[in-house]
Design goal:
Blueprint lengths: L1 E6 L5 E6 L22 E4 L6 E4 L35 E5 L11 E6 L13 H19 L6 E8 L11 E7 L4 H15 L6 H12 L3 E4 L3 E4 L8 E7 L11 H20 L10 E6 L14 E6 L1 E3 L2 E2 L4 H6 L8 H10 L4
Antiparallel strand pairs: 1-2, 2-5, 3-4, 5-6, 6-8, 7-8, 7-12, 9-10, 10-11, 11-13, 12-13, 14-15
Helix pairs in contact: 1-4
């Protein structure tokens, strides 16, 4: 992998990730951009104990631009975009409309391909491996920034999810605090030990799923994908490396090499689970990594959580009173049925 760093016209950082060592990335951003002005802040909720990012400047971000005006496509035919090059493989750059900025963290955009009409599921294994390398590299660099406690790599896919740009891309958030979801998982892991468990909670969860077998979707020598016993979403799969590690940086070469095939198959099954007539499945794909300085960091297990808000053909799962008001999820699809369906739509 070759990484080339540059800056956009307004001073934001941009990184090209190429599979070839001889790739030349010397294109200059020709746009007359001024340095971005942001008004973000972090406010603490004293009742719930969590934090809320206030980012009013995001109201003006690009929203479903017309055909030919996508800011994530390469710069071609006299039209200048966020990526100065006329073609690229994988690109990461600072978000022009960040939710977190300055002392309150950082937000980046990850473009998986320069093909506007593609998807992650349509990538070949080599490109998926390059994206994994980019996620890992950015995790390492963002971890070194002052005040960053946790890095979150994720992809929102589909209008139903709320995506405002159709180009295949994801995001990376560098939080200045440990997120509530991670805090709860770490507390559960600590309580598991305090109850006298001899093994790590995450290890026990994966071992229990493998022993039961009914919710296993995919397995390989280095990864296990399953629908969790208490799945929140109608179709939800968790992907764990067989060897527990805290974050992407700690994955060994064998797990890295094995990841693309398994993950691409999982995404393709999600696209098929509701039938061809439904079109691409909207989803959120999220890497959960350990905080960098948490006292129980070693107890955490890197894993990816993939879920869709579509509950059946033509119907979405809305977060209504119980879910949004009290954070108590009600799942319409038994996890065993969801896993069975995801096995049924395996590639031939």
């Amino acid at each position: 992998m070759k990484k080339t760093a540059t800056r956009l016209a307004d001073g934001r950082e941009l990184f090209y990730y190429d599979s070839r060592d001889d790739a030349v990335r010397d294109d200059v951003d020709q746009r007359p951009l001024e340095r971005p002005t942001t008004t973000g802040e972090i406010r603490h909720d004293r009742l719930l104990g969590d934090s809320v990012a206030i980012a009013s400047h995001r109201q003006s971000r690009t929203y479903h631009p017309p055909p030919g005006q996508c800011p994530l496509c390469p710069s071609r035919d006299g039209r200048h975009t966020e990526i100065p090059a006329a073609a690229y493989e994988v690109v990461v750059f600072e978000n022009r409309f960040p939710s977190l900025t300055g002392d309150h963290g950082r937000c980046e955009v990850v473009c998986f391909t320069d093909d506007h009409d593609a998807s992650f599921a349509a990538l070949d294994p080599d490109r998926a491996a390059l994206v994994l390398a980019a996620w890992t590299d950015r995790t390492a660099e963002l971890a070194a920034l002052p005040g960053v406690e946790q890095v979150f790599c994720f992809e929102n896919r589909g209008r139903e999810i709320g995506v405002t740009l159709g180009h295949p891309h994801g995001q990376i958030y560098a939080y200045p605090f440990v997120t509530p979801r991670t805090t709860r998982m770490l507390a559960s892991a600590a309580a598991h030990r305090q109850r006298g468990a001899t093994r790590n909670l995450f290890d026990d969860v994966v071992a229990d799923e493998r022993a039961d077998g009914r919710r296993i979707v995919l397995e390989s020598e280095h990864w296990t994908a399953f629908v969790p016993y208490a799945a929140h979403w109608p179709y939800e799969a968790h992907l764990y490396p067989r060897r527990r590690v805290p974050d992407l940086l700690a994955l060994d070469d064998a797990a890295r090499a094995d990841f693309p095939r398994l993950y691409l198959e999982l995404l393709r099954r999600f696209d098929r689970v509701f039938g061809a007539a439904e079109g691409p499945t909207p989803y959120i794909s999220a890497w959960h990594q350990a905080p960098f300085r948490h006292p129980h960091r070693s107890e955490f297990a890197l894993h990816l959580e993939l879920f869709t808000i579509r509950r059946t053909a033509g119907k979405l799962k809305f977060l209504a009173g119980s879910e949004s008001g009290m954070n108590v999820f009600i799942n319409d699809v038994p996890p065993e049925d969801a896993a069975k369906r995801l096995r049924e739509v395996a590639s031939e």
